[in-house]
Design brief:
alpha/beta; seven-stranded mixed sheet
Length: 301
Amino acid sequence: MNITLRQLQVFSTVARHGNVSNAAEELRITQSAASMALGELERQLKDKLFDRVGRRLSLNERGRMLLPRAVEILARVREVGELFSSEDDRMAGVLNVGTSSTIGNYLMPRLLGAFTADYPLVRVQLEVGNTEQILQEVVDFRIDLGAIEGFCHLPEVEAIPWVRDRLAVVAPPEHPLARRGSISAKELAEARWILRERGSGTREIFQAAAAKGLVRLEVFLELGHTEAIKQAVEAGLGISCLSRMALARNLEEGTLVELPTPFLDLERNFFLVIHREKYRTGVLRAFFDYCRTRGPQTPLR
């Protein structure tokens, strides 16, 4: 058996894109060359690695078994090259990080700024999505490490508690509920709500709390961006529940007012998430340590 790095590279890239043409474009080879490399790999393994679903290629059971091993081999080879690429032995490499939107917009930029100042030869690529999207990126080995604000229910993903956060229910200052010293769960449930889209960690945490403290909710709008929700609430279109991290400036300036909700448990954790079979390069471990100093002292296993 003579499996090559190119074959593993084509395989992992096709797995990420779901088709040969996009993989070939990323690798800057012809589509026929990519198809030949993948076909030769399957011939040597005497197994098909993908199922064709419409026009897409989807990993089958054998492909899913191979993927973490192929990704690890490629990462180790890349790490060897990076180890000898720096004349002064400084750490170098590429790190792919994915975060859900609150973390990506309000926490991660400062963290990455400090990290890249200390490790100037490390190039960080940051992707921002909702919790559901970031978890899928981890499962597919498209990112090295994720940071999410919702729950993780996937057995192949390790979720490590990181930073504590608290949600707040907010309204514009002129809203009738904002002028009250206290409000009931019934009054809150009957208000018009503007929430994040389904798949958002903020939405998931809030709905879990609301299921225990509120009878029903009238969801007037679903928006995919925190800033859009804040603008809609300021415009008087409804009330919402967002991270206090995202609301800090609005609450300080008085453009939004926090409503008293002692009947809702709005405390939550941010989590660092990583595939259990992910190979931890030196760059990945260094970045995790940076994150760890700003959260619970949990070792990366």
